[in-house]
Amino acid sequence: MEKTLRSAPSWVGNSLLAVAVFASCWTASVLYWRSSGATPSGMAIGQLLLGLPVAILLALWLGNNAMRSRKAAAPIAQPAVADTGAPRAALPAIAAGAVRLRGGESLEELAESLLSNAAPCELDIELTDDAGYPVLSGRIESADDPSAREVMTPWLALRGMAELSFSDEQWRALSLGGAVVAELTEHALMHPLLPDYLAAGPSERAAVGLPLLQLRAVLPAGWPLRQRQAAADWFLHLVEQQGWPAQRLQLAASDEAAFSLVNVLVRATGLTLLVACDSYVGEDSVRDWSERRILFSGRTPRGQVPGEGAAGLLLADAVQAPLLELDGMAALQGACDGQRPVSADAPGNINTEMLSGLSRHALHDSMTEPAAITAICADADLRPTRVGELMGVASALLPHLELATQMMSVGACCGTVGAVGPVAALALAGHDALANGGEVLCLSNSDSHYRCALLVRRA
Question: Which keywords label this protein (predicted)?
């Protein structure tokens, strides 16, 4: 069935795109009206059920035509992008990936959910906006597990941080992040030099050559510094507790003012365990977003849906990748990123120029023809600006793709999850490249300004 869909004519993809846009707008509007019990006015019905999807499709069509015209006028021109200051050859390989999202607690489950739309965000009976109506959220039931709090609290006391308190949302994020760390540590423990290192005497261990495992924890910038430091130390403790020797374990410094996936990748040497976790599923975030008018509702259809989750990658450089006895690895190439000059949240600002330029740059650097791309993995959520931008890039650069079966965006099932989104998208791209043996373009456009593109293929 998948082969039949992928070989269908282009009008099928355009029809599916139109259906998807109308369905998303209608579903969100109907859910809100049903939850509020209010009868929408004729103007509201026209704006949300007809005007909004038509505006999105029109923006996509105009962007597509503009990009095609520009490409025809300058077919070999390469766009200017932000200089990461790192050689492309420094990129590591993905040895393993892990996710905890509403769409799935494994990459296989997440891919299946996204392609079948099996786990969309739903009305949350525990969270209400300032008008008392339920809000859409990407709640994960397993995040309610109290074991993380029960185990971490006495550990904090032993470390002299008994007075340090975390909110319910932070505990949810830590629970999900700890699960991802534990899963990826199991893969790291398969390193063939680990048994020899553990069996050797203290004076002989240096000669074994076991690499330094670096843990890089990407935690929400809104958390106080002490809480971020304690959470990172806790994840490091979990890795050591599972069996990786403390002498070959290090916490990588996170000194970026803003998260950059490319910067994280080019700094990954030896073995790197990257984990990101976040949660906005709680009364504090909903109240804050409602006051700032950025919470998705009938009044703010361009708002955000509170989400939560965790995602991680086990990265191996050119020396360590051949040593790991895993099923396969995904190579990363052409990574580049940049900052939009104007926020994507500005009214009427569906602009594909930055993301299209980065995509072309990634394809050029990886010596890949656009026709060779078999899938897109992204972190875009259901906001019209993000959907419009992503669809515009896909239709302009990769018109051969059937977006219903060859594009997966993690934000569609989990809402807003901060840095978890791009890490999860990259993990999903690695999974797709290994499972289907194709060339996958990974894109990040969930942030208001940050944009990233890179190519993922089987190593």
Answer: Membrane, Transmembrane, Transmembrane helix
